[in-house]
Design brief:
Layout: H1 3-21, E1 48-55, E2 58-65, H2 71-80, H3 84-88, E3 91-92, E4 103-106, E5 112-115, H4 125-136, E6 146-150, E7 153-158
Parallel strand pairs: 5-6
Antiparallel strand pairs: 1-2, 1-3, 4-5, 6-7
Amino acid sequence: MRPGLARRVFAACLVSLVATAGCGVRPSDAIRAGDPPSGAVAPTVTPAVTFYLVKNGRLSAVTRPGRRLPPADTLALLAAGPTATEQADGFTTDVPPEAGPFSVTARPSGRLMVTLSTPAGELSTLAVAQIVCTVATFVPEGSAQITVVGAGQSVGPRNCPA
């Protein structure tokens, strides 16, 4: 065997021996570190969709379980009206079913525009407020300026009054 090869084999064996010998940590008993964690477990956040219905002539936020929907789909919930359970609880909607489909676009000025299929000027004050407040739930600061547009008419810009 050549001397260079012998040295390499010896070095490889030496490295293997050191690696298998361990790091010199000796076994010990368990070390007490204090009591285990206690207290209430934080609730898990369930996805939900929030929109505004009308109850006793006033806006009221309603949350339904489920995945968060895009703004236009959430507005479609307004036009579809409350569920049977929500109706039993006194909720209604002023947004007419024919108002959909909806689209929501951001304007360069930072304002949002909601386009619907019916004349915006014919919507009740509560219907406009329902639309504005529902779209405002998608804006982090919640103080969005929202204009409702439909059939050549516009209402706004408005902030959510709720």
